[in-house]
Every structure is written in structure tokens, then in C-alpha cells.
């Protein structure tokens, strides 16, 4: 059923509306389809079980999904018939934003895409983080071009069919965290070392999975560089070498699995210590690790599984108390010894595997392991058990088989959860306890002897009994019960036949007697295997046993049975294997012909007589038929004829039946194509060896063992016998009458794979010509045993296969005596009397032990070691053997020869010929260049150097003409070749032209010189091309025939071209500082070269400069400038400003008044600061103001900078530092009310005495009444009103005299009162102004102190100054007299107690004029 947004759609036809309905706007990875706000698909995640039929791959329209960043389509295309991955990836290559790609489990075919080979993928390559292509059918080598995937964190190509080797180039995937390569069975080669380089490798890797591949070589020693690894899974490969020590660096490792490889060596000593904290799973099983298991001394808080099984570890089991959370511990199949340590600390242990070691002593009490479910400590040397832990609450499987446990069987064998218990192969005795009935979950129970202890006869004298039928009846889930060799006596316990679901029942090798009980109706309904062999049972096998519905295997061999009951014809017999060997049957039971499902029938070792019935050849499913050691008779054709149906037969054993005869016809052999073992040993008179066994097309091609000793075989072995039986491993034909040669390879061209180098036989053919051939060679690859003794073979013994040679030697080496060694070799190869009394033809192939049993004879006229046993060849031409039985042929002496094979005398070489070695078959003519003047010469003498002889057999040597040469033994005189010459005759060799010369013609008496300007180091040069032009910086000094060019001395050069004959002096303005200069170097700026040939350019003198390269003179500095020696420019002196000119010059302008330049090479004149001035041009510094003076004629009046003069402050003022900007500047400050300064240049104002007040210009103090009078005169506001009214009234005659007098004195009183009040207010006003003046004085001193520290003025000080000035301004305005406000750089725009804002005029930073009269006043 569809879920999510799909559920709302009844059908889906792919329309735009349907896509819009299912596409989640701004969705994420939890959605199946996500779109952006514009409806463009950004994510495709096919979670639901849908299958798309897209046989042509993704539609090309996918390339339009430019916003797509995630496409996860696992299992979507599995029904599309194996799409080529190129048709899936192709439409995605043009997308720009892909970050995740997953197409796992789609059965995709083709090769892994080389993504970085596609330019169109470059954008997505920078974003891709996930690429999953696992569980497909990709073939070929892994992609090598992935280096562009710089952000890839996960790469999965597991479960494919990749081949080849892992690419080194993957080392560039520096951010890869997960790499899955598992289950690519043909992916081989080594793990690239580059992956784990300390820099540039996969050092971000967290998970490395490469199981079930074919990786070879060693695990890189530097794997520890990837120190973030958490999982390493490299199991089921072919890795060799040790476990790298750097594994101990992987402290974050959680799982390490390198099982099923071929790793060896000891484990790193600190491995268990370094990895203890995080490791949860460690699997090193099925390798060849040696040494002891490292101690586990630290706490292992996370370890759950530790598997070190199937290695070669030795020593004892280490203490395991620290691995407290361990759940699975497997140390099986090692060589551990000692006892089992205390395991009680492993309270969570569920699975304990210790089998296949050498552990001894007692099994400790394991009752403390309350979680233990599986225990296997089988195949050790344990002797006892402590405690009663076998009844553990959770124990389900217990295997202690194959130990040396002694004593009585424990009274408690299992617990309520036990399903499997195996105690076979110990020495436990006594009765099976009655408590077995409480083991109601038991499914398999093995007691008694192990299979290796079970012999044909029961030898144990210990008897055992079973628990009661009631107890056994409780084992309702028991399916397998093995009591073999337990020592049971009496009759077969019928209680066991009542077990309801028993399927495998083994009571073999006990001492049971009586007959086999009949099975009651409904009993043993699912029994499939019943083993009763090795007892003393009598009677017949009951029919009820044969017809059990599930019984497939019945083993009743080695009893005293006499027959088999025949069940009713209507009953079905399903038996597939019936073992009746070793009983007392006298006839083949007829009931067997109804057992048509039989695959194995064993009637050997009975007392059967008569011929084999014909129906035996019609059992179509029969695979194994054993009739050995009976008294059967008759020809094979009665049942193994042309119509036999034994097409599945693999083993046929008829040995020990002397009355059986052949033949075995080709038609009878043809159906037996699967027979692997054929044993007809001792059957009497078989007749001729079957010719069909030598026909590769019709023989027993699967045959591995043919045993036919003493079988009455006659005739010859077919020539292609071994070729027709390619899988033959054992051939035993001893004691027959076989003739002819032993078959060998039909064509022998080499001696590979045979035990010997091969023998080359030399003989004369019918025409008297010597021929040679290799002796016969048998190269059968699987033959391991060859027994041919006591036959009548002839001819040569073939060289036997190398494995036979080696095996015979090994068996002989194991013996301690010579007879035993011979018998040991004959157990592998036995050729004793194989060729009758005359033996084989000598020689034998070699002295190897395999041929020691063969006898041979060597004919007269031949020779060989050991009377020809190992070498019996006719004498070769060049040697003679005059008597028979020679151990060697005598070679002819030098100067003599024997032309024919088997010669008896050697002849002297004729004159003009020679024989220089012993054993010459013919004499040789002297070659050209040599002569032999006498007969019987052993050698021909070479012509001496400078002479030659062009003909064979020459007697004298001819002199070489001048211009040629000849070495000793030359047939001709050779003209001197190119590059050589001779100046005289009889030269033995031509001289090479000396270095610096050449010769491009032959037969010359001299060499040509290399011209001036060239040289040659080559002796024997053949053309002028070796004369190489002298490199730049060298010359030949005008000479010819030079072998080298000489470097120019310092001060001279040759170049820039090559081939200079002479070096030139460096020109003026240049220098050549070193030898071998190829050019004169221009003098650099600040230097000059007035003459030629200089090594260095002298520096310009002081107050001179040179801005250009390559000059011969220096320039003087202009006015106002200076320079040190070697200057490439001049610098302005202090008090001047520099202006650069073209060509490196400079002009220096004096600073104007008000400016200064304290540094040389100043590019700007700086304004004088507020308390300094400059009155002249070219000032280096500004002068400090004189006491009582302030700056005047400022260039920047607003900031009071750039003073060009100083002036005294006028009377009535004082000099005071004022804060202008952030600098304190001296200003003329008016004295405050009540203070005066009578002289110019005053630095302080003096307070007026009491009763006086300062004049308006503050130059003197005045009496206060004078001021009031003046004030009264000046303040006419009140007086004018009162007096005016009185005068007007009097003038108008309104007042009388008395009235006028009264009015006058009244007015006078009013005036007095007014004046008194005004005087009080004025005094208070003046005192406040004086207090404010003192406060301001204090704050200004504080400001000066703060600025003197170099730090800005504190905000609190600034605010306090502003508050004082604001209050003083307010008081001055109401009183009619002013107080100077604190100036902070310009117009006062303050108010309300806030600080004044500074409005500074712009200040020109550069002043270049020379006049002092410019600028405004100070």
C-alpha cells in the first residue's frame, strides 16, 4: 500500500499536477520527493517497494533537474534487465548540485564510472559526499579517476564483480570516512600503501570493509596513520605477513576482522593495551599467527567478541579478568597449553570455544558463568571437571569430546536448557544417570567412544547401563543419540526405540547380543540413521526395520547376522545405504533387488558363494558396491555386461573372490564413467588386460585407483593407458603376467614435471646414420603409487613423474634401516622382477630411490656407470669402446678423430686441418685467418696482428698495407673507419682521432681540427658535428683543435651567443664580476664604470648620485640635498621638503616661516605646534615661545598652529595654557573680575584689595563708591523715573514747599535702600566669580597633568571645565561684565552646561612657499 503523499493519488501517470502533489516543498531526507519553493525537485528518495521498468536507464530529462542534490534509488531498477550503469549516470553528469548518489541493489552492469573524466561533472564533483553502487553486477577494474571528489565521505562498491587491483589514486580521497569493497571475489592485488601515507592519504577513514575479495600481499605498515579508523574488515582474503605494529595507533578502533587470511608472525606487544578502551570485536581467526597471546592487563570496557581461533598461538591462556563484558571467546584450534584459567570475571560470557588445543588439568567450576550458553572444549587433554556446572541454567550446547576425562559419569549431565551434549572420547565410566530425564530440551547426546577410538572389535572391559525407560521417555526432543563404545551389554534397549523424534541412533561397538528387535507400529517414524555395527547380534535384520518410512542408512556390519527378512511386497523400502559386511551371510539376500534407492551396498567379509545376480547391474542409483573377501565365482559378464545400468557407480570392490573371471568388455566399461575405485585384486584368472582402458574416449576417465594385483592379467598395457586415465592416483598390477613396455607419453618434447633430466639415446639407423631420441617419459600429474612387480614387461623404464620420485624418496628417508628404506620406497614404486629374469633395458632414468627395485642389463658395445645400470649408451662419434661392458667410452685425443658411432680406433687429422679437443668426430679445416702447416695438428695458428689470410687452409699470412689494420687471426685487413687513422703499415689497430679533432672519411692517415671557437671532448669523432660551439662565457683563446673551452676571466665575457674564439673586456658602464661570464652586466644605480674591463662598478662618491644603469659617471646633488657614497638618489637636508623629479633627481624647497622639517628626505614641512614658532625659511625645528609671549601670525588660526612670530600678552591679560583640540596652547587670557595685570607679558593676575574692584580693562583696582557713582550715572532705569517725576511736578507747580521737601527726602530714602541692596548683590556676585576662577584654575592644572601622561583627557575633567565656564558665562552676563569662556577650538556653541564643540578650519599639510609674510595674524 502506498504511504505518505502518494496515498492521496488513486493513480500516478506522471503529470505535472501529480508531481506537484507528491513533491514536498522544502522537504528533507525523510521525504521521498522534495522541491524548493519554485517547484524544482531537490531530492529523490525512493523508499517504497516499487520497481521501475527503465531498460534504457534514466530518461535524458533528468539532466534538466539542475536543483537536484540527492538521488537515492536503491532496488528501483532490479526488474529492468541489468541496465548499463552508464545509462544511469549519464543523465546526471550535467547536474551541478549533486551531493548524494545511491543506486545500490539494482543489478546494474557495465564498469564503474570514471566520474572525474567528465568535465560536465566538475561542479557536482566538488559537492558529492555519498556514492553508493553496492550490490550490482559491475565488472572490470575499479575506477581510478575519482580524485576530483574532494568531499566524498562514503564510497560503496561492495557485492559486485570488480577485478584487477585497488587504485593508488584513491589516496587523494582525503575526507573519505567509509569505504566498502567487500564481496568482489576477483578483486586482487595489494592494499595500496599510498592510502595510508602520513600526508595525502585517507587519514579521515572511519570504516574500511574489504571482506571476501582476493587481496594479497601485506597489510600496509602505515595503516596506523589513519588513526580515526573505527572498523577494519579484511576477512576472507589472501593477505600475508604480520599484523602491522601501527595497528596499536588506532585507539578509536571498535572492530578489527582479518580472519581467514594467511597472516603470520606474532601480535604487536602493545596491541591489547593500546586498543583496550573502545574495541568491541576482534577476529583474527583462521590465520597463522604465532607466539603467545598478549596479556590483557588493562580494562576492556567494550569488548564483546574475541576470536583468535585456528592459528598457531602457543603458551597459556592469559588472565581475562579485565574483559568483563566479553560475550564470545574463541581460542579454538591453536597450540595453547596449561590449564583453563578462572573465568568467573566474565559474567556476561555466552559462547566459549577452546577446542583443538593442548589444555590440561581440570575444567574449572563454570557455575559462576550464569549467561554461558555454548561451551566447546573438545580435543584437548583435560582430565577432570570441578563443580556441578553441567546443569547450568542457560547452557544449551556442551562439547567436551576427545579429552582424557576420567571417573564416573557426572550425576548431572545437563540443565533444563541444554540441547546438545557431547562427552565422546573420554575415559568416563559408569551408568548414565537417571537425572538425564530432566534434560527435556536435549536434542543430541553423545556418550562413549569417539570415532577415532572405535575399532572393528570392541575391546573395552568396562560396562555401562542406561537409565530407566521412564527417564528416557522424557527425552521427547532427542533427535541424535550416540552411545557407541560405551560398554553396553545385554540386548538392544527397546526403550530407545520409543523415543518419538529420534533420527540418528548409534549403538555401535558395544557388547550387545541377541537379535535386532522388531519395530512396533508407529515407532521410529523419523529415524534416518541406525548404527548397530560392532556388536554380537544374531539372526536376521527384521523386515519392520527395513520398511521404516524415513530410514536411509542402516549399519549392521561386524555382527553375527545370517540374513535379511523379506517384507511384504506392498511395503516400500527407502534405504539408500546398507552395510552388512563382516557377518555370516551365505547368499545374497533376494530382498536387495527391491531396494532400488540403494546408493551404498556393502556385503564384503561374509561367506557368500555362487555368481553375482544379474539384477545387481540394474541398480541405477548404486554408487558403492563392495563384495570383497567372499567366495563368489563366475564371469563378470553375467551381471556387468553391455546392458548394465550402473551409471552412478563410483566404487566397485570385488577383491578376494578367487572364482570371479573376466573379461571386462568395452561395452561394459562405457556406462562406468564415474567409477573412481576399481579393485579386482586376487580374483583369479581375469585374462587379457582390457584394451578399452587405453581409449581416452571410452575409458574410465574418473578412475583414481585401480587395484588388480594377482588378478591373472595377461597381455599388454594399452599404449595410451595413462593418457586415458588422467585422474589415476594408484595403480597396483603386481603379480600378473603382463608383457610389453610400460606405457609412456605418446609425444615427449621436454622433461618438465618428470623425475629426471631425461636420457638421450644414440644409435645407428638402418642406413648407418647416427640418430638420437629422448628415452620414454611418463608425466602423469596425479599418479602417486605405481606397483608393477612380478610381471614380464620389456624395454626401457620410463622416467617417472616427479611426485612419484619425491614420494618414494620421502618414504625411504623415514626408515631407520636399509631394508626398511627399500620397503618404504617400494610402497610407492615397486618394479621388483617387473621385467622377468632378464630385467629392463638399461639405463634406468636415474639413481633415485624410485628405480631401486628395477633390474636391467646393458648390451656389449655400449658403456655406462654401474655396469650400465644408469647409463648404457653406444659410444658417440669421437669416442671408442673396444670391449663390452665398458663403464665409459674413451674419447679420441686432440689431433685425432672417430667419425662413426661405436668406433674402435681414432684417425690422425690431415695437413691443413685440426682437432683441438678430445673426442672429435671429424677434423676441421683451418678457418680464414689461421694456418696449420703440419698433419695431426691440434689447433690452427692465428695470423699475427698486422697480417691476414683470406682463404681456408692457408699456410702463410699476408702483410696488411698502410692505411689498414688487422687483429690477430684476421681474414682480411680492414681499412681504418671513420674517426680513426693509421700512419704506417702492419698496424694491428687504427688509432682514434684525439679530442678536438675528427675524421669523416675512411682509410685516412690523419684527423681534421675543430675550428677556433669550437671544441670536442670526443675521441674518435667521425664528423664535424662533434665540434661544439663554446658555450657563452667561454672561448678557445683563438686556438684550433681544442678539447675544451676556457672560461672568460673576471672583467671579460663571451656572449650572449656561443662560439666565441676570444673573450671581450667589459665596456665602460659595465662590469663582469665572475669568471665564465656570458655578458657584461650594466652598472646598477648608485654605481659607475669609467673604464673597460672592470670586475666591479665603483659606488658614486658622497653628495653624488646616479639613478640610471650602465653609466660611466655620477651626478652632483642639487642645492639643499646630500647623499652618502653609492647613492642612486640625493636626499633633502633637514628644514627642506623634497619633490621627486624624473630620472631619480630631487628638488629641495626650504620650509616657510611657521613650518619646519626635522628629518632628512622629508616630503612635507610640518606646522609648528601651538607653543612654538618659526620666523625664518628652512627651519629644521620650531622655537619655543618666550615667557609671557604667545604665538602670532598663525597659518591655521582656528587650531592655533603654524605661528610665524611671538608677541607679549597686553596689560589686563595673562599667559595661560588653554585646551585647543587635544593640545594645550598658550593664549592671552583676560584677568577675571576682581583681578588685574598692569604690565604686558604677565603670567598671573593679581586680586584687588578689599573694598576695591578691578577696572573694566583690568589694569588697576578702583574704589567701589566711585564705581557705584558711575554705575548710578550709567543706570538711569530707576533714577530717571523718580527724579524726573519729581522735577516735573515741581515745575508744574503741583508741589508746595513742604510737600516738595517731603517728597525729596522720601526719594532720597528710597535711593539709599536701593543702593544698599545693589551693593550686597554685587559683593555676592564677585565672591562667586572669584570662587569659579579658583575652580577653573584647579581643573586646568588637572587637565595639564592628564595630557602630560600621553593619554586623552578624562571625560569627568572635561565635563567639570565645561560646567564652570558655563556658570561663569551666565554670571558675567547678568552682572554686565564678562568672564572668558573656556575655548575648545573656535566659536562657542555650548549651552546648558554641556561641553563646547570645536569647529576647526581645514589645515593645509604641505607648505612650499619661501616668503615669511604670507598668512593671517596670530
How much of the sequence lies in strands comes to 15-25%
Based on secondary structure, the structural category is: alpha/beta
Distance between the termini: 99 Å
Number of E strands: 101
Give a short account of the largest sheet. 32 strands, mixed
Morphology: flat
Oligomer: single chain
DSSP helical segment count: 15
Low-confidence stretches: 456-460, 747-773, 1268-1284, 1373-1418
Radius of gyration: 62 Å
Mean pLDDT comes to 85
State the helicity in percent bands.
Answer: 10-25%
Which short descriptors sum up this protein?
1418 residues, 11% helix, alpha/beta, 101 strands, 15 helices, disordered C terminus, 32-stranded mixed β-sheet, flat
Describe the structure.
Helix content is 11%, strand content 21%. The chain has 1418 residues and is α/β, with parallel strands linked by helices. A hairpin with a 5-residue loop joins strand 2 and strand 3. Helix 9 runs antiparallel to helix 10 and helix 13 runs antiparallel to helix 14. The protein is flat, with a radius of gyration of 62 Å.
Question: Helix and strand layout, with pairings?
Answer:
Elements: H1 16-22, E1 24-25, E2 33-35, E3 41-45, E4 70-72, H2 86-89, E5 100-102, H3 122-125, E6 130-132, E7 139-140, E8 154-156, E9 161-165, E10 178-180, E11 186-188, E12 207-209, E13 231-233, E14 240-241, E15 255-257, E16 262-265, H4 271-274, E17 281-283, E18 288-289, E19 305-307, E20 328-330, E21 351-353, E22 360-363, E23 374-376, E24 381-385, E25 397-399, E26 406-408, E27 420-422, E28 427-429, E29 444-446, H5 469-473, E30 480-482, E31 489-490, E32 504-506, E33 511-515, E34 529-531, E35 536-541, H6 543-546, E36 553-555, E37 560-564, E38 577-579, E39 600-602, E40 609-611, E41 624-626, E42 631-635, E43 651-653, E44 659-661, H7 666-669, E45 677-679, E46 687-688, E47 705-707, E48 713-716, H8 721-724, E49 730-732, E50 737-740, E51 760-764, E52 770-774, E53 785-787, E54 792-793, H9 802-813, H10 818-826, E55 829-830, E56 840-841, E57 856-857, E58 862-863, H11 865-868, E59 873-874, E60 879-880, E61 890-891, E62 896-897, E63 907-908, E64 913-914, E65 924-925, E66 930-931, E67 941-942, E68 947-948, E69 958-959, ...
Parallel strand pairs: 1-2, 3-4, 4-5, 5-6, 6-8, 7-9, 8-10, 9-11, 10-12, 12-13, 13-15, 14-16, 15-17, 16-18, 17-19, 19-20, 20-21, 21-23, 22-24, 23-25, 25-27, 26-28, 27-29, 29-30, 30-32, 31-33, 32-34, 33-35, 34-36, 35-37, 36-38, 38-39, 39-41, 40-42, 41-43, 42-44, 43-45, 45-47, 46-48, 47-49, ...
Antiparallel strand pairs: 2-3, 51-52, 58-59, 60-61, 62-63, 64-65, 66-67, 68-69, 70-71, 72-73, 74-75, 76-77, 78-79, 80-81, 82-83, 84-85, 86-87, 88-89, 90-91, 92-93, 94-95, 96-97, 98-99, 100-101
Helix pairs in contact: 9-10, 13-14, 14-15
